[in-house]
Amino acid sequence: MGFFERFRKKEEKEVLWTKCDNCKSLLYLPELRANLNVCPKCQHHFNVSAKERLGQLLEDHSLLFERVKPADPLGFKDTKSYKERLRQAQEQTGISEAMLVAEGMLLDERVVLAVMDFNFIGGSMGSVVGERFYRACKHASQKGLPLIAVVTSGGARMQEGILSLMQMAKTSAGVGYLRRQGLPYITVLADPTTGGVSASFAFLGDIIIAEPRALIGFAGPRVIEQTIKQQLPEGFQRSEFLLERGMVDMVVHRKDLKDTLHSLVKFATYWRRHAEL
Predict the structure, then answer these.
(1) Residues 134-146: pLDDT tens digits?
(2) How many domains does the chain have?
(3) pLDDT-based confidence at 5, cuts 50/70/90?
(4) 60: CATH
(5) Is the pLDDT of residue 274 over 70?
(6) Domain range for residue 225?
(7) N or C: at which end does the chain have fewer Cβ atoms within 10 angstroms?
(8) Each residue's pLDDT tens digit, 24-38
């Protein structure tokens, strides 16, 4: 190992500070993580990994469908090959795809949880993300469990072409399994939730929660502004803007998310427990 590589690795290990994207405050990383990656100064919600989400929401869990892994069906290549992009994303995030699915305990309620990771190729939805979500729906319906999806995505994965767009229909069909069983499906929209994911399973929840100030929409605000040649209103496509217009049901701070989800699951499954008594 050369000198510069050793120096770079040492620097990576010793990074203890970061700057808030919103208020520009200098933040101590261990304290930020202890605060669920929310800025203590301005309450800006930082992006969190799929693994962190699982740790924040479930006491005990087991991962599902990890054998379903991405391939390169089109042999796609731009400045890098798709295989190389997948390999790099897997190394950087420590996960095999942009969605993890787990079954576990949300306090005293057993649930199926699907979480997305924006750090994995922008949380884009390819064939494996669609397949894992579809299987999560079937698994939840077969076991009679609620499904919660924590969503953050830039949309469909261009490296898989039409195959990625087909996942919009596939994931929507998966939600149908839950509907037929009368099982609750709750979505949590984090920053950002856009493109084909927002146009499919993200907005099919029985209850749609958004984190504060999350960017939520199909096309980005800059694209819309350039298309309609008009200035957009302040806060356009942010959680609070959508809440005012009835597009989401509630905006929930990350520190309250676990308890809120637990209460909603408890309420939504009451009739099933009551019927079994």
Answers:
(1) 999 999 999 999 9
(2) 1
(3) low
(4) 3.90.226.10
(5) no
(6) 48-276
(7) C
(8) 999 999 999 999 999
The answer to the question of residue 12 being in a domain is no
Q: How far apart are CA 95 and CA 18, in angstroms?
A: 23
Residue 244 C-beta-side C-alpha neighbours within 13 Å: 8
105: in domain? yes
Contact 177, 138 (CB under 8 A): yes
Task: Say if 30 falls within a structural domain.
Answer: no
Instruction: Answer yes or no: is pLDDT of 275 > 70.
Output: no
37: left (phi over 0), alpha (psi -120 to 50) or beta: left
Evaluate whether residue 41 is within a structural domain.
no
Spatial distance between the Cα atoms of 186 and 208, rounded to a whole number of angstroms? 6
